[in-house]
Design goal:
Layout: E1 4-7, E2 10-12, E3 18-24, E4 33-39, E5 46-52, E6 57-59, E7 67-72, E8 77-82, E9 91-98, E10 102-104, E11 108-112
Parallel strand pairs: 2-11
Antiparallel strand pairs: 1-3, 3-8, 4-5, 4-9, 5-6, 7-8, 9-10, 9-11
Amino acid sequence: QVQLVESGGGLVQPGGSLRLSCASSGSIFRFSTMGWYRQAPGKQRELVATITTSGRTNYRDSVKGRFTISRDNAKNTMYLQMTSLKPEDTAVYYCNARDLNTYWGQGTQVTVSS
């Protein structure tokens, strides 16, 4: 059973930066795609960014140029570097990974507020 554990969330002022990490209990080579999703209060979960095994990335329009997704296969970890954060980025951020199944982490809270 694969476990995904997110870390790196917290409270940051607008314009600040955070780096989220998603550590897998097993090798991430098995995952064709990994990604980050977020869910704000009262809203549906939405896709933030994805990365494939080959390193191809995809971002939602609102985070392009501000967020960078990456994966370190040697460390079995995926990252989301977030810069120029805005209050509307406030949400619980979830790690997602897919092979024949879909796996989710427990989420990490990101709050952008002055």
